[in-house]
Specification:
The protein is α/β, with parallel strands linked by helices. It has helices spanning 24-36, 56-70, 85-97, 115-128, 139-142, 148-154, 170-179, 194-199, 214-225, 229-245, 253-261, 278-290, and strands at residues 8-12, 17-18, 21-22, 41-44, 76-79, 102-106, 133-137, 160-165, 185-188, 204-207. The protein has an eight-stranded parallel sheet with strand order 9-8-7-6-5-4-1-10.
């Protein structure tokens, strides 16, 4: 029986940058904020962390720092996916050496692999490491989606722990739950689908909104775990406008902008990411004010 890597809310942490590279001091402050507010796991060097714009040296430095700073208080999950299987293997092995508790491996982007190709991709990575792997299904960014039948085949591998599901396809998630064994974990990859996915047996969320509202996202999942879905649903609805604002432009532009407005030293977005439009900037400011966050 596989044990869940985490239950609750994992923050897909942003990466603070400076002119010299990664601002580790600022990253430590962000990690402390998360740990002080109930976050159940940290995802580092994921989409929200702008991993695709980082050098391999920066990625390893950032993963290693997070592992040391968190110090086992919650699991640290390292993003190690690539559109090259060989590259994903290299990055996964590096994160394993650095002490990551689990790996988050996105589907190969751009290539648009078939289901047979996805199966081979993940089988190869799983055979190269012993660290648990969370699959990451986000077809809006990668152009490919993992089918429930492919999840079922991958769930047979001992170190495939489950999936971060950001497809928005609740029907496919239901089929996945029915096809896979109970120890194949499902986490929501969309903040605004946390409660529906938990109601279908999901264990929580890997969250963008938690960068700003860690306590609220932790509470949202805790209510689901307590089977208080009436209160969880009400909180999900309360958070809806905030979650939408964090995706008014492509992630992580809005959330990194929000953190900067709140005084966090997150630095610039890395090209090709750029600041939000003036209209979206005003929208982000207005939503922060509406949720009682000082700007």
């Amino acid at each position: 029986m596989k044990h869940p890597i985490f239950t609750g809310s994992a923050a897909a942490i942003v990466t603070p940058f400076s002119e010299e590279g990664v601002n580790l001091t600022a990253l430590g402050e962000l990690l402390d904020f998360q740990l002080e507010n109930g976050t159940d796991a940290i995802v580092v060097c994921g989409t929200t962390g702008e991993a695709s714009a980082m050098t391999e040296a920066e990625r390893q430095e950032t993963i290693g720092f997070c592992v040391r700073h968190v110090g086992g208080r919650v699991p640290v999950i390292a993003g190690t996916g690539s559109n090259s299987t060989a590259r994903a293997v290299e990055q996964s092995r590096a994160a394993e050496r650095l002490g990551a508790d689990a790996l988050l491996v996105v589907t190969p982007y751009y290539n648009k692999a078939t289901q047979a190709g996805l199966l081979r991709h993940y089988q190869t990575i799983a055979a190269a490491v012993s660290t648990p792997i969370i699959l990451y299904n986000v077809p809006s960014r990668t152009g490919v989606s993992i089918a429930p039948e492919t999840y079922a085949a991958l769930s047979e591998l001992s170190n495939i722990a489950g999936v971060k599901e950001a497809s928005g396809n609740l029907g496919a998630i239901q089929r996945t739950r029915n096809l896979c064994p109970p120890d194949f974990c499902i986490w929501s990859g969309n903040d605004d689908e946390t409660v529906p996915i938990c109601a279908l047996g999901g264990l929580g969320v890997i969250s963008v909104a938690a960068n700003v509202l860690p306590a609220e996202m932790h509470r949202l999942v805790r209510l689901c775990q307590q089977n208080d879905f009436a209160a969880a649903g009400a909180l999900q609805l309360q958070l809806k406008d905030f979650c939408d604002a964090m995706f008014c432009e492509v992630n992580p532009i809005p959330v990194k902008t929000a953190l900067a407005l709140l005084g966090w030293k997150v630095g610039e977005l890395r090209s090709p990411m750029c600041p939000p439009s003036p209209e979206h900037l005003e929208h982000i400011k207005a939503v922060l004010a509406r949720y009682g966050l000082a700007v």
